[in-house]
Design a protein that fits this description.
HIT family, subunit A, 5 strands
């Protein structure tokens, strides 16, 4: 008999991850959480999902504890979408998925695992990524460690931020020259 060991999931599966009632997205200074952050913007950040559906499963999260889109500021909305775009670019470059699920679950009935702190999921998908292990064994097989995912994605996010900064500076300079 083959065994698939995933001891890191034990606390999650048994619910013994502690009685911490603090929002996981608001406590991003915790060592486990901080090491999964790929990039920080001014009002939001991108973080890997600790319990991914597929390799590269990440989330874009506003810094502020906001329960839904209606409560976001214009700045938060813009940066959330900009980082979601960067996440799509980074995942496409790093993994070449055949598709990407992008979604927001608002409320427990909609599947939200973290209530009252909006976050956007991006999940790379490939034809056949749901196989008998998922369908029958209720087990996901993830061939890449989270540390390897961070190592693969973080440099792409850093490059995208540099390119965006350079483009913004160039646009400002062009506007200045027109005045």
């Amino acid at each position: 008999m083959n065994r698939l060991w995933a001891p890191w999931r034990s606390a999650y599966v048994t619910g013994s991850g502690g009685n911490n009632t603090e929002c996981i997205f608001c406590s991003t200074s915790e060592p486990d959480c901080a090491s999964l952050i790929l990039v920080r913007g001014t009002v939001s950040y991108v973080i890997l999902n600790l319990y991914p559906y597929n390799n590269g499963h990440l989330m874009v999260v506003p810094n502020r504890h906001a329960p839904n889109l209606a409560t976001l500021t214009a700045e938060e909305q813009a940066e959330l979408m900009r980082l979601t775009r960067h996440a799509e670019i980074a995942l496409t470059e790093a993994y070449a998925p055949q598709g990407i699920n992008v979604g927001i679950n608002l409320g427990r009935a909609a599947g939200a695992g973290v209530l009252d702190h909006l976050h956007v999921h991006l999940v790379p998908r490939w034809n056949g990524d749901t196989n008998f292990m998922t369908a029958i064994g209720e087990t996901r097989v993830l061939p890449e460690d989270l540390a390897a995912t961070v190592k693969k994605l973080r440099p792409i996010f850093e490059r995208l931020a540099r390119e965006e900064t350079a483009a913004t500076a160039e646009t400002a300079k062009a506007a200045e020259n027109k005045i």
